[in-house]
Amino acid sequence: MIVARGFAATLALAAGIISTTARAAPNLEGVPRYAHIFVIVEENKNYDQVVSGIDAPNIAALAKRYGDATHFYGEVHPSEANYVALLGGDTFGIHDDDAFYCKPGSTDPACWSATRQPGYPDHTVYAPHLGDQLAAVGMTWKGYYESLPTPGSLAYIAGDPTALYASKHSGFMNFASVQHDRDRASHIVGFDQLEADLASGHLPNFALIVPNQCNEMHGLYGAGVPADCIGSNVGPLIRRGDAVIGKLVGEILATAAWRSKQNFAIVITFDEGSGPTREGCCAVTPTAASNYGGGHIPTIVITNHGPRGVKDDTPYNHYSLLRTLEDAFGISQHLRHADASSQGVKAMSPLF
């Protein structure tokens, strides 16, 4: 667990390093070009549960020092489709947590809804995702998943106690181009590879970082689950996840890439809110089972050369974040709902 004093010192050091460095000129939609953006996804918590600082002092400190998207929303409940939306600009009809390989009529136990849900979609998405866009322009991406059994694993769930890794929190694995990628093992990796990459400085342009289900504030149930991982122990679960965030952010801020003149951002977001509420914005459709709004969630933007102390009350969601990522990497063609300007989807430029 990270020591609070050490984390505050890291933040202060980072602030001092960047204070004399000029911000890059805006490019697409007022978003500067970025060399690296790392998105860390947490689970199932409402904005007020986290940014209040009662149980999440590290995240609250980051929100205050850097950028706080105060009106950010998920697309749907439960988890899986929000990860897919972040990467592909659509939920593609998914509104359950079934395995990425499930299809209509599947009888696999991991496809529980396949024979029960009208209009059940293929959970393998045959459409492009952000990683495809990046590869097309010569840029790199990785998904870092804590407790992933092996690099490139096609496991649905894995790890003791009771499934620390769950592919429903992967996002990338839902896409056919990832499932069939001959280099999948270099794109879908564990936290051991994250530690190695941070130490070596060989960092992808884009990274999606997902802690395991004990460390991302999701929680688990069953024999052997630690008290601060039990899903109903909300305060301890948030504190555990917040400590992990503090450690991850501290490690990224300690890299040479963060201290360089190139633009680097860390985004901390959540998949959905903690309850069944349908708050949403920006190309969501309240009557659509798979796109009706997933609750009011925290999203914090940390930049090495960008704005400080910003509270942005513009309505945003994961489609907005995808659009911003595309802009930041110089990609002008936005995927699906990320392109829905007429429905309120806009770049998060004030925070970058």
Total number of beta strands: 15
Low-confidence parts: 1-5, 13-25
> Helix amount, in percent?
25-40%
Mean pLDDT: 94
Give the count of structural domains.
Answer: 1
Q: What can be said about the biggest beta sheet?
A: 8 strands, mixed
Task: Summarize this entry quickly.
This protein has 352 residues and is α/β, with parallel strands linked by helices.
Report on this model:
The two termini are 29 Å apart. It is built from eleven helices and 15 strands. Helix 1 runs parallel beside helix 9 (234-253) and helix 4 packs parallel to helix 11 (318-328). Residues 1-5 and 13-25 have low confidence and may be disordered. The strands form four sheets. Strands 9-6-10-3-11-13-4-14 form an eight-stranded mixed β-sheet. It has a three-stranded mixed β-sheet with strand order 12-5-15. Strands 1-2 form a two-stranded antiparallel ribbon. The protein has one domain: 3-Layer(aba) Sandwich (Alkaline Phosphatase, subunit A). With 352 residues, it is α/β, with parallel strands linked by helices.
Features:
globular, 8-stranded mixed beta sheet, alpha/beta, 11 helices, 3-stranded mixed beta sheet, 352 residues, 15 strands, Alkaline Phosphatase, subunit A
Task: Give the topology.
Layout: H1 4-18, E1 26-28, E2 31-32, E3 36-42, H2 47-51, H3 57-65, E4 67-69, E5 72-73, H4 80-88, H5 130-136, E6 141-145, E7 157-158, E8 165-166, H6 176-179, H7 184-187, E9 188-189, H8 191-200, E10 206-210, H9 234-253, H10 256-259, E11 264-270, E12 296-297, E13 299-303, E14 310-312, E15 316-317, H11 318-328
Parallel strand pairs: 3-10, 3-11, 4-14, 5-15, 6-9, 6-10
Antiparallel strand pairs: 1-2, 4-13, 5-12, 7-8, 11-13
Helix pairs in contact: 1-3, 1-9, 4-11
